[in-house]
Amino acid sequence: MLTDTHCHLAATEFAVDRDAVLAAAKGVGVASIVVPAVDLASFAAVRDCCARYPGCVPAYGIHPLYLQHAGQADLDCLREWLARAADAAQPVVAVGEIGLDFHMGEADIERQEYFFVEQLKIARDADLPVLLHVRRAVDQVLRNLRRIRVRGGIAHAFNGSRQQAEAFIGLGFKLGFGGAATYRGSKRIRELAASLPLDAVVLETDAPDMPPAWLAGGRNTPAELARINELLAELRGIDASQLARATSTNALAVLPQLLSAD
User: Which residues participate in a divalent metal cation 1 binding (predicted)?
Assistant: First the structure.
């Protein structure tokens, strides 16, 4: 059994063949898929996608690169959305995808940090874990997590140092590894994926983004998780089935609402 802890299955890139994409993923052993939103406009699509496909569970949040038109009303809506889902006994696995992204420079640092901090508060109040986007901003994300304690979560697409990895683990987080680790040139990511404690690692695709090396930049899908799992198991020197079991157990430990994915 495999668990894809980060897959944008509700994205328009899957509009024409989503049924086939899910069937292919199930066919290679992907049993559970976490589907995060990126902005308020995507909430309904994520909800409907997860309602349609067994094994899929939603996360709701505002991504740092989707803040162009976001305002206080979006934060209020996120809080209300989580409350309505809880009242309706609808499983919400996490608040996400949220975080910071300084890849394109730090011009929006204050705006990004404001929305990140406010969403951490929402997650804390709802007692939900978070799915973190941390590109070029690991230390800043950690600083905010130390100030506003949440119920752990996952540092998605982790690409930091071992010291930073240990800091996340100490705060109750798992570290997500996927397509980036399949490139021979990604030496730091591969070393961490191979040597971090097994109970700290979870798998992800970030589909349709972050394609593994063998797709040559093409569209990623959750079915690729099986081959990603095999490659990372080889890096760790363990059997692929052992890694699949361990990473699925880790995902459930940090995202307990995955139990509702049936």
Answer: 6, 8, 97, 206
Number of domains in the chain: 1
140-158 pLDDT tens trace: 999 999 999 999 999 999 9
Residue 100: exposure state from Cβ atoms within 10 A (0-12, 13-18, ≥19):
buried
- Is the whole model's pTM more than 0.85, yes or no? yes
Residues 19 and 9 sit within 8 Å (Cβ to Cβ)? no
CATH of the domain at 147: 3.20.20.140
Asked whether the beta carbons of 33 and 222 are under 8 A apart, the reply is yes
Q: Where are the alpha helices (DSSP H) in 64-214?
A: 72-87, 109-126, 138-147, 162-170, 187-195
- Was 127 annotated as part of a binding site? no
Residue ranges in the chain whose pLDDT is less than 70 = 105-107, 262
> Hey, what are 15's tokens?
């509009």
Query: Is 63 labeled as ligand-binding?
Result: no
Q: Flag whether 108 is marked binding.
A: no
State yes or no: 6 annotated in a binding site. yes
Query: Of the candidates 124, 139, 59, which has an alpha carbon nearest to the alpha carbon of residue 97?
Result: 59
Q: Write the DSSP symbol of residue 238.
A: S
